[in-house]
Structures are given as C-alpha cells and as structure tokens.
Amino acid sequence: MDCFAVALGICTCHRQSWRNILRMALFFGLFQGLMPVVGWLIGESLRDPIEAFDHWIAFALLAFIGGKMIFQSFRHQRDARIHDLKLTVLLALAIATSIDALITGLSFGLIHVNILKAGMIIFVITFLVTIVGSKLGEKITFFSARWAETAGGVMLILIGIKVVLDHLAVW
C-alpha cells in the first residue's frame, strides 16, 4: 500500500509516461520482492541490530523526499510535459517503501515459508498495485498541481511517521 500511495502522489503531481510508470513499478516490485529474500538470507543473527534502526532510515528517506516535494510545490507550476523520474529518486523511494520487508524476511525464516514463492508473489502484487496507483493519480484532477504536489509530499512524510509509529507500537 505504501507503493500505491507513493505512485498515486507522484502521478497526481507530474504526468508520467508508460515507460516511467513501468520503471517505477519494476523498482518498487523488485525491492518489495527482494527485501524479504535478503532478510531471509541474512538470518536471525542480525535481526536485532537492523530492527533497531530500519524504521528511522525509512522515515528519513520519506521525510526528505516528501519535504523536497513540498518545497518544490511552491517553486514550480505544473506543466503538461512528462517528468522523468531520476534513478536516485526511484532508488530512495524503493528502499524507503521496502525496508520493513527486510525484517519480514527474517520472520519468514522462522515460520518456514517458501521464500522464493513469497518474493515472487510480493513482486507481482506490488508491480500491479504501483501501476494502478499511477494511473489513478493521473485521473485525479480536482487538486491544483501545487496542492497535489504538496499533498504528495505530506503523504510521504505521513508514511514515514507511520513506519516509526508502527515500530514503536511493537515495543
């Protein structure tokens, strides 16, 4: 759902080509699908050190990108041109929205899940949900571009806050 919300926010603010939408869906899907596999491979021995700060990394990345979106919303007017998503932005968003999946992968090892099957299912669902969020974002026209970009930035910051609060609720 984080990937859906991010894609919705991005495509509400800036028109994206199918190439960019598919690229975003691929990045989000790959990271969401691979992080549990990586977590599973890391094993139980590193669970505690990673779990201690993973939520803060996700929050920092989402807050930075969200803050940048809010700042830019007051500097630029929306235009009809297609905006290319930079590789660094895609990587940061993909990591931020999937870092909690790393810990999920660690827990998958404890309950004997077929990790490759789980990773593929997660990839496919995330890929499709990102496309749906992107296309839905394009259809949202009742916001001005400035407010849509501000709302997208706020949404990213709120997702970051949710990650931290979810972590704190576990403790």
Structure notes:
80% of the residues lie in helices and 0% in strands. The chain is mainly α and 171 residues long. It has one domain (2-9, 18-170). The longest helix is centred in the C-terminal third of the chain and has 26 residues, at 145-170. It is globular, with a radius of gyration of 16 Å.
List the helices and strands and how they pair.
Elements (H helix, E strand, L loop, with lengths): L1 H12 L4 H25 L4 H5 L2 H20 L13 H24 L4 H25 L5 H26 L1
Strand portion, in percent? under 5%
Record field, number of beta strands: 0
Query: In total, how many domains does the architecture comprise?
Result: 1
Order of helices and strands: HHHHHHH
- Name the overall outline: globular
Mean pLDDT: 79
Structural class: mainly alpha
Rg estimate, integer Å: 16 Å
Distance between the termini: 23 Å
What is the share of helical residues?
A: over 70%
Tally of contiguous helical segments: 7
Note poorly predicted spans: 78-82
* Major β-sheet profile: none
Characteristics:
171 residues; mainly alpha; globular
Q: Concise description?
A:
This protein is an all-alpha fold. The chain is 80% helix and 0% strand. The longest helix has 26 residues, at 145-170.
